Amino acid sequence: MINDIILINKENIKTPSEKKNVPKIDEIKLRIYACQLLQEAGIILKRKAVTIATSQVLFHRFYFKKSLTDFDVKIIAPSSLYLACKLEENFCSVYKIINTFYFLYKYEELKSKHYYFDEYKDMKVEIFTYELLILKDIGFLIHRINQHPHSFLLPYIHSLFNNLNQFDNEMTKKLAQISWGFLNDSMRTTLCCEYQPRCIAVASIFLAAYKLNIPLIKETNWFKLFDVDYDDIKKICIRILQLYKIGRCHYINILTKEK
Is 0.85 topped by the overall pTM? Predict the structure, then answer.
């Protein structure tokens, strides 16, 4: 489709981190950890959902170009959010972003730490530096990567269920809420770089429908309405469900040099 986003090659390709012998599970957990931070920081700062999603896409894309051993997620995450706020015209002071991430880091460590002016100033400089590096590494093609599954969700649910009398408004509202939750969770994975947004939206609807015992039977070919392959739906669902087995993730220091 003409508006499809640029995807990474998910077949037989190693990420920069894997090439530097980072265990796959460690990369997965660090990506989840950073996306948790981005979600929490975005909520604290009252940023729009699209801004948070954009920051997570930027973060994931960056680490398909760079290794986790060379660039600390604790600075790339706030840099991604700062850049996302600009791209989505949902502006936020760099000082508020720094304060919020420091708060989240302190909360995680469960100890109080005072950050002195020089350290605070260093993080500001790093954020300004890395937002430009992120832009450079994604090739300034923001318009070709920055489309989110969230924008497809409600129209797709409307198309599927609006004319079916057996599903009332309350049921479809609940379906939308649960689907939205699955979408938000999917952003902690690299699905946003591997599948078109409409595929992730449809998979989230499928998971929510299953949870609510709403039959979406393969034989009816309902998914073809959205130009989505059923095998892709299954693969995406499996990836989302695997998140819940992993659970909440914490920081792992795998840096090979100080930044």
Answer: yes
